[in-house]
Amino acid sequence: MLIDLAPVLNNVYSQVGLFFYVILCSFVILPGQSIVMASYGAFTGNLLGLAQLISLIFVASVIGDLGTYFLAREVSQKVGKFVRRFKWFKNNENKVRNSLKKHYFLFLFLSRFIFTGIGPIVNYLSGFEKLNAKRFVLAAILGEFLYAAGVTSIGYIFKDTWNELLSLINYSAAAIILSLIGIYIAYRLIKHFMQRHSDKKS
């Protein structure tokens, strides 16, 4: 049975929560960010509501980007020591730094709406390296507008099938998790029996 999520996603508290969630996504890498935004777009009633949603996500994204950048710029040593504890930052730091030095504006711009998974890393490194603030602001504004408009519009365009798609995603995720658990259990059992067989031979 499918649940109508429109009343839930359209209430004020939900949109305030979305606003702060989007800001947080500029500071840390969070899974499912695009799906969350597209879901809000899918349950928007009309074009006016869609425009308001795009504006909300756009403003929150830019605030988050600028907050991350200037925080890293002002207290780079303390912030750098903290974020380097996380694997998602350590694994990509050198690669992102090299790309920023070669193609600063273009790479920063593309990280807003194409390479979104490394967006927070780009924000931090731009601040750590004290890269040009005006170019950062311009790239963030242009890129985040395309991202906010694109992701929410996808949900709005496919709103008639969005409930079914979300259900499919949930079922697929559950199936994958159960399959992985089954594979792990089978692996442990096989390893256990092989170990016992090896012990008997010796």
Question: Which secondary-structure class do the elements indicate?
Answer: mainly alpha
Q: What does the largest sheet look like?
A: none
- Report the radius of gyration as a whole number of Å: 22 Å
- Please, how many helices? 11
Number of domains: 2
Which word captures the global form? flat
What percent of the residues sit in helical stretches (DSSP H or I)? over 70%
Rounded average pLDDT = 81
Structure description:
- This protein has two domains: 6-157, no CATH class; 161-202.
- It is 83% helix and 0% strand.
- It is built from eleven helices and no strands.
- Helix 3 (33-42) packs across helix 10.
- The chain is flat.
List the helices and strands and how they pair.
Elements: H1 6-10, H2 12-25, H3 33-42, H4 47-74, H5 76-83, H6 87-90, H7 93-102, H8 104-113, H9 119-128, H10 133-157, H11 159-201
Helix pairs in contact: 2-4, 3-10, 4-5, 4-9, 4-10, 7-8, 7-9, 8-10
Key attributes of the depicted protein:
11 helices, flat, 202 residues, 83% helix, mainly alpha, 2 domains
Summarize the model shown.
With 202 residues, the chain is mainly α. The chain is built from eleven helices and no strands.
